[in-house]
């Protein structure tokens, strides 16, 4: 199951959607840092969650948080 989840993350990274991902320390879950379209980020977040093999299998729950970057947006846009 973990390999399917990581393969999904690699697909998101190759598409330019995923900037970084990994488990928390201490391990109690993980986090994705994503680049999403400005017009409907919540729809994009839902689609990413719904396609994750961990979510499909009921292994993980998601807390979806949109982030309105105010300081540092220009630097993030260059990533």
How would you portray this structure in words?
- The protein is an alpha+beta fold and 79 residues long.
- The protein has a single domain (2-77), classed as 2-Layer Sandwich (Alpha-Beta Plaits), CATH 3.30.70.
- Helices cover 42% and strands 14% of the residues.
- The chain is built from 4 helices and 2 strands.
- It has helices spanning 2-14, 41-51, 53-56, 73-77, and strands spanning 18-23, 30-34.
- It has a two-stranded antiparallel sheet.
- Strand 1 and strand 2 form a beta hairpin.
- The longest helix is centred in the first third of the chain and has 13 residues, at 2-14.
- The chain is globular and about 35 Å long.
- The model has no long low-confidence stretch (mean pLDDT 90).
């Amino acid at each position: 199951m973990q390999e399917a989840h990581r393969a999904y993350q690699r697909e998101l990274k190759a598409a330019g959607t995923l900037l970084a991902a990994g488990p928390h320390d201490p391990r109690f879950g993980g986090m994705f840092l994503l680049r999403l379209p400005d017009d409907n980020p919540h729809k994009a977040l839902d689609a990413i969650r719904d396609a994750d093999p961990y979510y499909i299998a009921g292994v993980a729950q998601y807390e979806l948080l949109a982030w309105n970057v105010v300081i540092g947006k220009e630097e993030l846009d260059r990533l």
